[in-house]
Amino acid sequence: MQDHLNFYIDGAWVPPVKPGNTRDVVNPATEKPIARISMGSAEDVDRAVKAARRAFESYSRTTREERIALMQKIMGAYQAKYEEMAKTISSEMGAPIWLSKAAQAAMFMAHFGQAIEVLKSFDFEEKRGKTQIMREPVGVCGLITPWNWPINQIACKIAPALAAGCTIVLKPTEVAPLNAILLAQILHEAGVPKGVFNLVNGDGPTVGAAISSHPGVDMVYITRAGIQVAQNAAPTVKRVTQELGGKSANIILDDADFKTAVAGGVQNCFMNSGQSCNAPTRMLVPQSRHAEAIAIAKATAESIKVGDPFAGGNGLNLGPVVSKVQFDKIQGLIQKGIDEGATLVTGGVGRPEDLKEGYYVKPTVFGNVKNTMTIAREEIFGPVLSILPYHDEEEAVSIANDTPYGLSGYVTSGNLDHAKSVARRLRTGNVHLNGAQLAFDAPFGGYKQSGNGREWGVNGFEEFLETKAVFGYSAE
């Protein structure tokens, strides 16, 4: 049991203004606390914002070369603690250790590397006739991040923020905050100037609300639960960027390699125990091949092992979901699927039979799902797949777009041009064709209630810039 009761503000670890309000960090595999953190207040946020405001005056004027050098130092310091970061993430949010090493922890390096590449060649100024167009850092950024891909969601915000010349106040998730605390130590060791990065732990209604409503914060950037943040930010008319949820459709066309496509879709859905906002949770298959899809999905799901995140083994394995709150929500939605008449193919409510503790969920597949059912409408955020039959391509596109979300989509076809034609019709911010992976230089974000703005690459970098027009700059 570790105590992490201080916050990182103005280059130092300082106690809360109001000490004594603490929260346990629970290992979801054991249901036992592994650490204790302080829960901050509006006063702590105010201290952090003032520190960031002071630091902005000098950090915003650093050169491109100075910021590149700083970010390279950060990457070096992070690499030195890479194993510790991976273990920390697995311990606090339950990702299997192989996933933490291969993806969870690795995302930090990918985002920082990409931000450096963007910074190296980005044109901060351009001339238009007699006018000079300048792109300048937006200011103090309040960042509110979730638990499902914790260091990834921090890195894809602080990397472009630092590259652009902004300063930061971070509220990481209180459910899995230890990776952020370790990151603050890494940034300190790398020599990040005091006040440029600040960390205040706490919950959304207190610390999150204080950040989003603070007049000294120029921009608030949140992943998940963004509606309340936008409302809190409205009176101060600050920029609000949101990356929220998803209910992504995976359209498998009749000319696809069906076995590969269905099995891959199941594995993609269940990766990270289904706790990914862009997971392909609605699998759309031709009505004539619905039974075939169910058989493949059942075999694939039942081959997946669930258990200790630190256990080895080959193939896909799943750890627990992050918390009791999340476990109970998933259980309720699985039961809702049964009650509403979907066919339970495999899995179901309760833990896997051989696991007596931990927030483990059975890999679950439903067939004969209608798009009006709760399990097809709500983001479950667990290892639960819904298979929906469609009669023709028109209906497939209609079902895919019939959702309040629009983060991601998937199309598989034996003909790439065929897949492209369907992709163009999907109202989503991302589409994966034939199993294509994410690209870090491409924009990531959604349509509709999946948020606004974009992360990653040049688009993510530009979110942290303001545009200034200086008229009469040139006498020519």
Can you offer a commentary on this structure?
The chain is 39% helix and 21% strand. The protein is an alpha/beta fold. It has a seven-stranded mixed β-sheet with strand order 17-18-19-14-13-20-21, with helices on both faces. Strands 10-9-8-11-12-22 form a six-stranded mixed β-sheet, sandwiched between helices. Strand 11, helix 9 (226-233) and strand 12 (239-243) form a beta-alpha-beta unit. The longest helix has 18 residues, at 42-59.
Within the largest sheet, what's the order of strands?
A: 17-18-19-14-13-20-21
Q: How many domains, as an integer?
A: 2
CATH architecture identity of the largest domain: 3-Layer(aba) Sandwich
N- to C-terminal separation?
68 Å
| Main beta-sheet annotation | 7 strands, mixed
Low-confidence stretches: none
Set out the fold topology:
Elements: E1 2-4, E2 7-9, E3 12-14, E4 22-27, E5 32-38, H1 42-59, H2 64-80, H3 82-93, H4 97-104, H5 106-121, E6 125-128, E7 131-137, E8 140-144, H6 150-164, E9 167-171, H7 178-189, E10 197-199, H8 204-213, E11 219-223, H9 226-233, E12 239-243, E13 249-252, H10 258-270, E14 282-286, H11 290-302, E15 305-306, E16 317-318, H12 324-339, E17 343-346, E18 364-367, H13 374-377, E19 384-390, H14 393-401, E20 408-412, H15 416-423, E21 430-433, E22 451-452, H16 457-462, E23 465-470
Parallel strand pairs: 1-5, 8-9, 8-11, 9-10, 11-12, 13-14, 13-20, 14-19, 15-16, 18-19, 20-21
Antiparallel strand pairs: 2-3, 4-5, 6-7, 7-23, 12-22, 17-18
